[in-house]
């Protein structure tokens, strides 16, 4: 059921007359609270709109297509009437007419989409493509999605989730190049992280960071008595709030991306004292800053490639034992304790295969290749390239072939060549590396150092194939080639 308002010149004049005869000072005198005044006035405007503007209700079915016009509905109704009457001749005529008119309607709608594309109206084109395929991307649910920030690929300039994952993997792989080492990774989960920020404490921290006082006061006023989950400023404010939370021991790395906090313990010769102490210090810092650790969702992964490693004692935080898991989805990338990517690749391969159905539906409309490529790039290629700079270099040939089959299937549907995964990986690694080299404040900028000649970058020292195929060594290799 779809309800729409019928706006006409007459109804607009009636609504305007309703507003003109309203004594707006009554609302101002009723309250001094700006939020309450805004809500009251908005409710009154909605009431006047409902009173003056008539509505029309129509039935719309999920399988209704945008090209199925009223004329086609009449022909379809005539066909159904002929079938009920048992008139075979009339039924056959109506059926043939309906088939012919459907072809014409599809052809006209295809031309309409093509004209919109030529007229540089991508919003209308995208709406038409979704109507044809019945593709409905999941809408963000701020109230129910506690990890929405994991899907924000760039919540501030030139920083992405791939950068955070690649940096964490670099710490791990570089440490594992040494003999007798292993890594313990603690994935910290906070309970309602954004909503537990104390505005006055944040103001103090912002002042220490030399933020102007007027801005500090505005932020404090903005946060007071306001739920922060889903707010655009929440990731940035939380990063500033936790800016003073750092690891003191050089063998422990604290990786933070918005409300996702990861503690990486680089263990040498079985000495875990620094790692366990930093975990306890993190818990103490959280208690002092009104952040509650969710011990039920805080988990740990142990990466250990030693021969015959002994059983390791579990980590305990706040008298609660942290569960050890074999894999964890960190910032949209599934990381396994064996540092293999079959789980992550399997999930994106399944998702990409499912979306090929929509491409098949568009092909039936004989849409131009330009539109089909655009849809493929937005809906399918974007899935295949999820964190591709993280996992592609270390992926097995069978996993890459599995994903490449999806690309070849799309090529057959579209009828045009598409970039391979290797080409996409190379292009994205180069672009990402170039942005990092130009950003002096980037956390991984120091890994790209020029040789004395000034023409090539110094290669990173790697002792394992696993480390060599990771992002930073490959990025330097591609920049030098």
Automatic annotation (TrEMBL):
SUPFAM superfamilies: DNA/RNA polymerases (SSF56672). Residues 56-335 form the Reverse transcriptase domain. It comes from the Eukaryota. InterPro entries: AlkB_hom8_N, DNA/RNA_pol_sf, RT_dom. Pfam families: ALKBH8_N, RVT_1. GO terms for molecular function: 2-oxoglutarate-dependent dioxygenase activity; methyltransferase activity. This is Reverse transcriptase domain-containing protein.
């Amino acid at each position: 059921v779809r309800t729409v308002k019928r706006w006409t010149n007459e109804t607009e004049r009636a609504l305007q007359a309703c507003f003109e005869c309203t004594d707006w000072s009554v609302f101002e005198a009723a309250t001094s609270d700006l939020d309450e005044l805004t809500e009251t006035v908005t409710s009154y405007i909605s009431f006047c709109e409902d009173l003056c503007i008539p509505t029309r209700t129509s039935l719309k079915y999920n399988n209704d297509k945008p090209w199925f016009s009223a004329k086609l509905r009449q022909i379809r109704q005539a066909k159904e009437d002929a079938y009920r009457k048992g008139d075979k001749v009339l039924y056959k005529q109506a059926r043939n007419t309906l088939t012919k008119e459907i072809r014409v309607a599809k052809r006209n709608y295809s031309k309409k989409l093509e004209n919109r594309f030529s007229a540089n109206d991508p919003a209308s084109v995208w709406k038409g493509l979704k109507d044809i395929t019945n593709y409905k991307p999941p809408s963000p649910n701020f109230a129910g999605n506690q990890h929405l920030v994991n899907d924000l690929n760039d919540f501030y300039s030139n920083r992405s989730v791939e950068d955070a994952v690649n940096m964490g993997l670099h710490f791990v792989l570089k440490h594992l190049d040494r003999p007798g080492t292993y890594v313990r990774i603690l994935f910290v989960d906070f309970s309602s992280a954004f909503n537990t920020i104390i505005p006055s404490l944040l103001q103090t921290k912002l002042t220490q960071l030399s933020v102007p006082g007027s801005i500090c006061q505005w932020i404090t006023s903005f946060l007071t008595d306001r739920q922060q989950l889903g707010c655009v400023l929440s990731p940035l404010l939380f990063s500033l709030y936790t800016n003073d939370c750092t690891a003191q021991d050089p063998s422990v790395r604290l990786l933070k991306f918005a409300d996702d906090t990861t503690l990486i313990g680089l263990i040498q010769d079985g000495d875990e004292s620094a790692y366990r102490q930093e975990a306890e210090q993190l818990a103490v810092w959280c208690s002092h800053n009104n952040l509650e650790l969710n011990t039920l969702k805080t988990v740990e992964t142990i990466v250990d490639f030693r021969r015959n490693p002994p059983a390791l004692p579990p980590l305990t935080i706040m008298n609660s034992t942290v569960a050890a898991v074999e894999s964890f989805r960190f910032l949209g990338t599934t990381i396994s304790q064996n540092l293999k990517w079959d789980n992550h690749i399997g999930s994106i391969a399944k998702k990409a295969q499912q979306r090929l159905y929509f491409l098949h539906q568009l092909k039936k409309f004989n849409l131009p290749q330009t539109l089909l490529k655009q849809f493929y790039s937005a809906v399918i290629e974007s899935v295949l390239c999820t964190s591709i700079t993280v996992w592609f270099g270390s992926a097995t040939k069978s996993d890459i072939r599995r994903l490449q089959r999806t690309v070849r299937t799309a090529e057959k549907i579209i009828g045009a060549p598409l970039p391979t995964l290797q080409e996409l990986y190379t292009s994205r690694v180069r672009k990402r590396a170039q942005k990092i080299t130009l950003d002096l404040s980037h956390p991984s900028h120091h890994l790209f150092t020029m040789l004395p000649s000034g023409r090539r970058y110094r290669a990173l020292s790697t002792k394992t194939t696993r480390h060599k195929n990771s992002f930073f060594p490959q990025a330097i290799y591609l920049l030098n080639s």
